[in-house]
Structures are given as structure tokens and as C-alpha cells.
UniProtKB/TrEMBL annotation:
The chain holds residues 196 to 590 of 672 of the full protein. GO terms for cellular component: membrane. It comes from Oligosphaera ethanolica. One of its GO terms (molecular function) is 4 iron, 4 sulfur cluster binding. It is found in: Membrane. It comes from the Bacteria. Its cofactor is [4Fe-4S] cluster; [2Fe-2S] cluster. The lineage of its organism: Bacteria, Pseudomonadati, Lentisphaerota, Oligosphaeria, Oligosphaerales. This is NADH-quinone oxidoreductase subunit G. Belongs to the complex I 75 kDa subunit family. Its main location: membrane. Keywords: 2Fe-2S, 4Fe-4S, Iron, Iron-sulfur, Membrane, Metal-binding, NAD, Repeat, Translocase. One of its GO terms (biological process) is ATP synthesis coupled electron transport.
Amino acid sequence: QCARICPTGAIIPKNEVSKAWELLDNPEYKTVATIAPAVRVGFGEAFGMPVGTDVTGKITAALKQLGFVAVFDTTFAADLTVVEEAEEFLRRVTAGGTLPQFTSCCPAWVKYAEQFYPELLPNLSSCRSPQAMFGAMAKEMLPKLFDVPREKVKIVSIMPCTAKKFEAQRPEFSRDGDRETEVVLTTQELIQMIKGAGIDFNAIEPEAMDLPLGFKTGAGVIFGVTGGVSEAALRYAYKKLTGKNLANVEFKEVRGDDGYRRAEITIGDNKVRVVVVHSLSNAHKICEEVKAGKADVDLIEVMACPGGCVGGAGQPVYVGMETRKQRAAGLYRVDRNMQLHSSEDNPYVKEAYQNILGTPNSHKAHELLHTHYQSRKRIQDEDVLVSGSDEAQEK
Ligand code: SF4
């Protein structure tokens, strides 16, 4: 039963605040921070601000005061995820690949699929999560920028999520024992650090994030809410299939609170059938339908937490759906206030393809931005008990 609620062992997450302090205290390291989309609209609650207030600039300033040499945005990597995942989907459709395609940006869902539905793993997008894509890109780009060896760049990821702690430990996201993401702090843990350091968060002046990995579009920002990954992919697919810019970028058909939603989107001559689910009970439902051949769908977005990442277990404690809705509204406001709403328009994403990745889904893109999965069915009992615990992290 525990495994159904918490497939990643997130019930027993390890607090990593002291590990983050150790990195910051070591002058040999260039320690940088990266902030997930949903964090910015949950953070202010701990300081008495209205639910859904975007405090990206204040978090950035606070992180600089804590000693991070640069502050970036995981949303940059969410933009990369959109490009890679939408391209993968379009290739599966045109080349007769395995369909429907499931999203893979939620590590709790990925681990759930590995444990309970290994027969569906070919349906999962091979794209890494934005956190894991960020780690790979940062380790590729920052050593040159800072003129230090790769292992001296340390990445601290600020996440709404306890499952991301498990994800960062996966051996496929390390090279020669050097983890791409060294420490994962939840929103609550960063709040603890800021309060512990005596920083007056309410009074602090906002600061801009650093380039190039701090630049994002609105498509990446809405990754933090259920339906956001689908909407971002649809924005990309529209331009790719029609060659035109969207007059209205908001796909309201995939938005909402229902735990299981269906939508059919017409793009040019094509119809894309989408299912959006959040919470693992609804993931279970759609998986059973796919297994039975009754799903009648092309693209399936799964987020394990109710409401998506805005309702993540690492966010400040909230009461009920209204809080989630207001955080989601905060992310949609951020999207509306941005100049760019489609991931492929991010100039630093374009630059990454020009200078490092080549084309979407290229060999290099697969090396840095994609992953593989393994059945955990046989080891699930042992795995569920220890993952995320001290013992697991020491293994
Ligand atoms: Fe993490 Fe929850 Fe978001 Fe999944 S939905 S990535 S478990 S916060």
C-alpha cells in the first residue's frame, strides 16, 4: 500500500540542508543553484505573501546572499524538454513508433511505471526530466564558463519535490562517480536555509537570474501545473506542423483540475488526442486502459502530485485544492507576462542546439538529454522501503 502512495520512497526524504552548506563553504567549488517552475509560486507563502505570488527575483537574490555563484532556472531545461519530447512524439507518429507516448518529466511517475507497469516502459518518452536535463547541460557548459574542471561545478537544485532527490541519485545521472545534480533541496528546505541565515526575505530586493541557463519562455514555466507539459508540447507541435505562429497560445482544453481529462486538439489537418492525469490513482486508471488497448489516445501526461508540481510534497504545507489553484494561476500569470511562449523561441535553447546538441533528438541530444528505464518489479519491495532513506543514499 505504501508503494502505491509513494513509489519513490518520498515519505522518508533526507534533509540536505547541511550538504548544501558544505558545498557553499568549500572555496574550491563553483556552486550554482537552479529553481524549478513551481517553487516560485509556493515560496512566498512561508513569508506571509498571498498564495501564488511570483517571487523568482527574491529567491534569486536570497540564493546569491547565501553564496551561490550563479542562479539559473530549471525552466530553461523545461524548454529543452518540450523540444525533445515533442519531436520524439512527432517522430513516433510519422515513423510508426510505440504509441501512446507517456510524458517522463515526473520521477515519481517514472518510478511507479518501472515498478508496476514495466510492460509500458517503451511508451514512456526517453526524455530526462528538466532537472536531469539541466544537470547534464550545466555540467557540459559551466566548466568552460568558470574555467574549472567538471567535478568542481556543483549543482544544487531547488525543487517542489521529494522524488527528485531519488532521481538525482540514479547512476545514469552521474559520470565517474560525479553526480550531475549534487544536492536537491525542497522548497521547504531552502526556506529553512534562508530563515536560518537571517535573511529578511520580505525586504530583499529582487535580482535577475544569470545567463545563459536562467532564460526561459512561458511554455517552460507552465510545466509546474497539471496540463502544462501537454500545453507546451502542443504549442511546439502547432508551429512545427503548420509553420505558423499561434494567435492564441493558451490551450484551455488541457487545463483544469479534474484528475483525469481528455482533449482532442486539431492542428492543421491533424488531430491529437491527449489525456492529462494527476495523482497515481489516475495514472493507474490510464495505464490499465492502455494495457487493455482501450485508451484511444496519442499523448498522455502524468504527474504524480495532485495539481502537478504546484502541489508537490516539498512545497510549503497547504490546505486543500484552493491553494493549488492559486499557485497554478500564479504560473499562468507568469506565462502571460512573458514575451516568449514557445520553447523553440528561447534564444539560448537555439544556441544550445547550434553549439552543442545539433538537432533535436540527435546523437548528442540523446547522450545529454535522454535516458533509459528499467523494470523494478522484482526489486520493488526492497526498493520502496529504502529509497530516499539514509541507507539508500549511502549505497
Ligand atoms: Fe515531483 Fe510531484 Fe512534480 Fe512529480 S508532480 S515532479 S513528484 S512535484
